[in-house]
UniProtKB/TrEMBL annotation:
Lineage of producing organism: Bacteria, Bacillati, Bacillota, Bacilli, Bacillales
Enzyme superclass (EC): transferase
Location of the protein in the cell: Cell membrane; Membrane raft
Domain Histidine kinase: start-end pairs: 88-308
GO molecular function: ATP binding; phosphorelay sensor kinase activity
Record bears the keyword Transferase: yes
The name this protein goes by in its record: histidine kinase
Amino acid sequence: MKKKISLGFGMLFFLIIFPLVGWLIYMLIAAPERICSTELRVSVLIILWLIGLLGAFIVKMSRQNKMLEENNRQLAELDRLKTEFLANVSHELRTPLTVIIGYSELLAERLSKEEGDATNLKCIQTVHRKSEDLLLLINDLIDFSRIESGKLEMKISRVQLEEIVNETVEEFATSIVKKGHKVEVVHKDTPLWLYADRGKVKQIIANLLHNAIKYTPSGGHITIRTYTLKGYCRLEVEDNGIGISEDQITQIYQPFKQADSSYNKKYEGFGLGLAITKSLVRGHQGKIEVRSQLGKGSLFIVSLPREKTI
């Protein structure tokens, strides 16, 4: 910004003041008899006035630059405080929530063995399920705050992509059965080795699979593919769900954005999953893209460098 302003001042000087000074010097040397004392005085006054005007403009712009710098500093500080607030609140909420989940799970196991407590068992199961949903939201907030603050740690090792995919799909078995989805897993090239953070890669797969299950109506079809292409391990997660409109595709990676971001939205969540996923993919020097049609489903494609040290 400062360089652009300095360049502007320089151009103003050469375009206005320098030609006048040059003309005055030329006339004094080449034709002094043509310049009377009045003309000389007027020329000098004009030059001095322009220099003064330029100086005042410089002072004004310097003040505005200082104000902008101070505003930027305050905004950066507010952003830092927001990130710290999210991290602190998330951590404070996660501890008691973990206890609630543990005790509700224990009560559900005890009630399931007793007769005549179907209603109580259903209530406890609901508490446990909603507590797990809340824990997922809190974990998203924690991950997002770490990414925002640049504190996300990567533990790189040699991992096998298809092994992580199979493990993640198995963990989502209950959710898949509950919605009656058919999930097809296709590994075209094996083994698919890459240097990456195993936990972060699993989180990428889990976020994409979670979205596919979430935004695909009951009885839908989800396909997960892995293969190699031009030095990359490729992961595809395709569904025949609600899809994404063209104007919404540009916003899906923005934090706290969803395909349906209205207050009374049908689908729960903060809208952080894809923002976190994109950051994790970039952290592995990879790429993510989406192809989607409203009402026809979505295809997410993740490309991670194959056996390349980060």
